[in-house]
Amino acid sequence: MHNTPLFWLLFNVFVIGLLLLDLLVFNRKAHAVKMREALGWSAFWVALSLAFNFLVYRTMGSEAGLQWLTGYLVEKALSVDNLFVFLLIFNYFKVPDQFQHRILFWGVLGALILRAVFILVGGALLAKFHFLIYILGAFLMYTGVKMGLSGDQPDIDPENNPVVRFLSRHLPITRQMEGGKFFVRRDGVRFATPLFVVLVMVETTDVVFAADSIPAILAITRDTFIVFTSNVFALLGLRAMYFALAGMMRLFHYLHYGLSLILVFIGAKILLESFYRIPMPIALGVVGGLLLFSVLASLIWPKAETETEVN
Predict the structure, then answer these.
(1) Beta partners for 192?
(2) Which regions span the lipid bilayer (predicted)?
(3) pTM of the full predicted structure?
């Protein structure tokens, strides 16, 4: 049932309907999203995700249900790194609060399309060339170690970003924001606005993160349905989570290390699969335990403010 063309059509229509409802009804007017509104939407998206997870559990069995929940948690956790980078980009370009939701909306839409391509290509390659699964496992372990050693500060330099430099060379760009517009026309010439540059940076940033997150969930399951739908629901709640956590993201300074351990664990799980298959309940427990421990550690041992941060 879940792999029939009709189901895929209905599911994608449902997702597009939710996005249009968000853009054209609930957020038709540009406004700064307050904490209370963001928390409400976050609760809605999480509840909707868990309801879909329950549907998977009832129709496909407990193993599929646990795989879906594990994949959803991994994608949701890894997206926290995205949020911190988005915050840096918005601060660097001084994007007004009321326009951030619009950028994130189109950013999420682009990410959904991009990740669908990644999942289809990745799934097809793994199905045809099984040895790639071990390369995938080693890659995840390498990425996890690299993430842990890099610390909790993302490597981002908008001024020297190749995408920004390319756009600056090939597109006329206005020096100031033009309301919520991505393009404006002046004297018959079409200009991109800084808001469009920010959108392109958000999209290209997601390409980098997808290179980590898609292999991570493909390591949990190669069921295209579970991989894609758990990704979709994790991304749908990304904007609300950004506004809910924007002021608190610096609190979770140990989460970065928890994510690196999760990637190492998933990579090791793949490499050990030929000798011992780790049961999905244990894998879910490890992922959830690492997330919980890193969050609690961040709250118990808060990060000391540097002199720069205080000033």
Answers:
(1) 173, 183
(2) 6-26, 38-57, 77-93, 105-125, 131-149, 195-218, 224-242, 254-272, 278-301
(3) 0.75
pLDDT, tens digit (0-9, with 9 covering 90-100), for 122-135: 777 777 777 777 88
Domain ranges of the chain: 5-123+152-249
d(CA 242, CA 80): 8
Residues 186, 173: Cα–Cα separation, whole Å: 11
Alpha helices in the chain (DSSP H): 5-21, 35-60, 62-92, 97-128, 132-149, 162-170, 194-220, 224-236, 238-245, 255-271, 280-300, 307-310
Residues in the chain: 311
Residue 84's contacts (CB-CB under 8 Å, 6 or more residues apart) are: 154, 249
Q: Are 262 and 75 in contact (CB under 8 A)?
A: no
CB distance 308 to 153 below 8 Å: no
Q: Which residue shows structure tokens 């999942």?
A: 119
How confident is the model over 64-102, as pLDDT tens digits?
899 999 889 888 877 776 777 777 788 778 888 778 878
